[in-house]
Amino acid sequence: MGANDPTAAPLHASLADTVYQRVKDDIAEFRLVPGDRFTESEVAARLGVSRTPVRQALFRLQREGLVQVHFRSGWQVQPFDFEMFEHLYDLRVVLETTAAQRLCEAAPGKADRSRLDALQAFWGVPREERKTDGRLVSRRDEEFHAALVAAVGNPELTRVHHDVTERIRIVRRLDFTQPERIHSTYDEHAKILQALLRRRPEQAVLLLRSHIEASKSEVRKLTLHNLYLAQRGSRA
């Protein structure tokens, strides 16, 4: 394959994306535990690729704060930073409650009303019609919160919220591994939407803050539990 082959770069990028997702899943599922060390060669051999896409993927994960490089001894899964986790959730509360207040105070446009109605169509269904696939609900939960912020129409607010979402996604998904938390999310989202559609800012802000704080508490507890199980398993 020549240096000027136009198919080379997309193929290379695709391999790097695949490696990125596989390693990120390993971290998310605690197959790689915070503090674990590994080399590019080990990852390349396990996934059957060259070291170049592995290196690209790992530097991407480094930018997200999930791994760190030690130039003489390979890579290491970043120790979980609970203080940073708390700060990011606090920032999320500020961003989303600000968005909720503005949505209630401003006359909603046709597009905004349509967006909220679409959310209500998913989250307002009876209990027996609710989705129970944790990965699906996790993705739709993320879309729910992103849609509320985007509806304000402030691109900088949306950008910062997107960055926070990216950084907490790997632990936030744990909130949807428990059936009762899935149903709680449906109940809480439906109440938040009702408050927004009725333009009740104080109620919407209170409900949203309580919802995010409950999620933060559950995710922290599950992260600690999974870390304990993974570390105990590695010593067995």
Task: Map the helices and strands.
Layout (H helix, E strand, L loop, with lengths): L7 H21 L8 E2 L1 H8 L3 H13 L3 E4 L3 E4 L4 H24 L4 H14 L10 H17 L4 H18 L6 H19 L3 H35 L1
Antiparallel strand pairs: 1-3, 2-3
Tally of strands: 3
Structural class, from secondary structure content?
A: mainly alpha
Tell me which oligomeric state these chains represent.
single chain
The CATH homology group name of the largest domain: GntR ligand-binding domain-like
Strand and helix order? HEHHEEHHHHHH
Structural commentary:
The chain is mostly helical and 236 residues long. It folds into two domains: 8-77, Orthogonal Bundle (Arc Repressor Mutant, subunit A); 82-232, Four Helix Bundle (Hemerythrin (Met), subunit A). The protein has helices at residues 8-28, 40-47, 51-63, 82-105, 110-123, 134-150, 155-172, 179-197, 201-235, and strands spanning 37-38, 67-70, 74-77. Strands 1-3-2 form a three-stranded antiparallel β-sheet. The chain starts with 7 loop residues before the first helix and ends with a helix.
Quick summary:
The protein has 236 residues and is mostly helical. It has helices at 8-28, 40-47, 51-63, 82-105, 110-123, 134-150, 155-172, 179-197, 201-235, and strands spanning 37-38, 67-70, 74-77.
